[in-house]
Amino acid sequence: MQIKATLNQLFSRALEHLEIPSASVSVVEAGKPEFGDYQFNGAMALAKQLGKAPRQIAQEIVEALPAHPMIAKTEIAGPGFVNIHLDAGWLATALQSAVADARLGVGRKEEPIRAVVDYSSPNMAKEMHVGHLRSTIIGDSLANLLSFLGDDVIRQNHIGDWGTQFGMLIAYLEELGEGAEGSLHDLENFYKAAKKRFDEDAAFADKSREYVVKLQGGDVRCLELWDDFIDKSLGHCEEVYRKLHVNLSREHVRAESSYNEELAQIVEALKEKGLLVESRGAKVVFVEGDENPLIVQKSDGGYLYATTDLAAIRFRAQELGAKRISYVVDARQAGHFKQVFTVARMAGFVDEEVRLEHVSFGMMLDKNGRPFKTRDGGTVKLIDLLDEAVERAKGAITQREAYSDEELEKIAEIVGIGAVKYADLSIHRESNYIFDWDRMLSLEGNTSLYQQYAYARIRSILRKYGREPEGELRLEDELQRRMALKLLQLEDVLHAAAREAMPHYITGYLYDLSTLFMKFYETHPILRDDVSEALRQSRLLLAQATAKTLSLALELLGIKVLERL
Ligand code: ARG
């Protein structure tokens, strides 16, 4: 059950009953325990609007509030806050049924939609870089989350596999012949070597240009070379996805090149709508409030990144029937998406009711606050970064227990990758974030390891107990009451994170939850002999609910948990 939404409804009904018009009612979580669990702060604004005293309005609202078993009491505080205290008995009962449910009581959306999530989307000419790492991690968690909440999610990997660089790359591929296999292992070097040939040898440069034309003209040999190149490059990406435990495979690839046939139509459609303007030989569309137009066709007839995006957006809205299209791409492309969205709507490619969103994110910075680069200023290879995460994770865990090599490898993989993903997801995605190994692999603070330890600790208790806890869940004290409330807030948090595409809501929630659990664990013995069986069962249920919540939420973020750590 969504607690906050339910409270909002109750307050809306009270306002309706009082015939007070109000645009939006919003109950918030109380900042301090003395203020109850939630607060309604609307009375002050309504007082101004109605010319009455705020406390009096608050009083009227409280009196008109429909009774609900969830609410134990309300009280009016300060200038006119309504403090809401939830009922411990209700919390216990609700939690008891949630813990018995595979979805932990989290409902699906009432009106599920088809949603497209465009993420990862690397360029094939080069190695994936850190920007794509962020896109992959954030996008995958968003896709998992939406689909868990009932949306029909279509993942789209909009890979960049078209453009003039490919003429040069396939010319070089052909030149290397059999020897290409080894060189393609490192795309970054392959690109550099091809570029060097291009710059130094006029004949090679001519051939490259010729190949671009041939490729675009559908020449079979060139297409073969190109296919081969894309296949290898995509293979690199798939290695990254595998290591990252990300749900992207070839079926999700909808490459830029797949829209080639439609680009002329797109330009034609813009023309028919009267949106197309010639500007210095190029075909462009002006968007209100922006002095730079969106260029859709160059003077030489070539199409651009934006043209492909218009074709893609039309495909997603019209063919796929998406009602929400999310682009998980770094913040530097904000201008591009703003224009593409506006033009797509002006052209009628996308209806008003379709939600278009740029799920933008900031840069990944090094410890000194500079853009993340290798020591010599090159791009960091993601594969190396992920391997390093696993290596470092070994260091972070061996100090604690003795594992066999095989066990250690498996654990380090989960801990290391989890740390990279969690660190990324736990900050507000729009801010830049500092990539710091020590912090991300720390046991203290809001880290994946902290959550994974809390989970493993509970699993160990449940293993020792050896049976499924049953019995009745009772909330013995304020700490347990707060734990129960936190656990039941899962649904609110997941829906908010999905709605706003904000994974850090979930990590913040998990941190609160595991912190409460650790306090509980330190002060409430469970398996000790002097604990009565009834209490033991109840405490086990609370612990079990915590473990299930941790693993479900982490799984949605794309992070695995370990039964032992
Ligand atoms: N390939 C682009 C890049 O690496 C990202 C593509 C994002 N998706 C899109 N539909 N434009 O910058």
Q: Report Rg.
A: 28 Å
User: How are the strands of the largest sheet arranged?
Assistant: 1-2-4-3
CATH topology of the domain at 448-556: Isoleucyl-tRNA Synthetase, Domain 1
What's the main sheet like?
A: 4 strands, antiparallel
Mean pLDDT: 94
Structural class: alpha/beta
**The first-level CATH class name of the domain at 448-556:** Mainly Alpha
Which geometry do the CA atoms define? globular
CATH superfamily grouping of the domain at 448-556:
Isoleucyl-tRNA Synthetase, Domain 1
* CA distance, first residue to last residue: 32 Å
CATH architecture of the domain at 448-556: Orthogonal Bundle
- Catalogue the ligands: arginine
Query: What percentage of the residues does DSSP assign to strands (E)?
Result: 5-15%
Helix tally equals 21
Q: Percentage of helical residues?
A: 40-55%
Low-confidence stretches: none
Number of strands: 13
How would you briefly describe this protein structure?
By secondary structure, this protein is of the alpha/beta class. The chain contains 21 helices and 13 strands.
Overview of the structural elements:
The chain is built from 21 helices and 13 strands. The protein has 565 residues and is an alpha/beta fold. Among the domains are: 84 residues, Arginyl tRNA synthetase N-terminal domain (Gyrase A, domain 2), CATH 3.30.1360; 89 residues, no CATH class; 109 residues, Isoleucyl-tRNA Synthetase, Domain 1. A 4-stranded antiparallel sheet has the order 1-2-4-3. A 4-stranded parallel sheet has the order 6-5-10-11, sandwiched between helices. Strands 7-8-9 form a 3-stranded antiparallel sheet. The two termini are 32 Å apart. The mean pLDDT is 94. The site of arginine (ARG) has 10 residues, from helix 12 and strand 10.
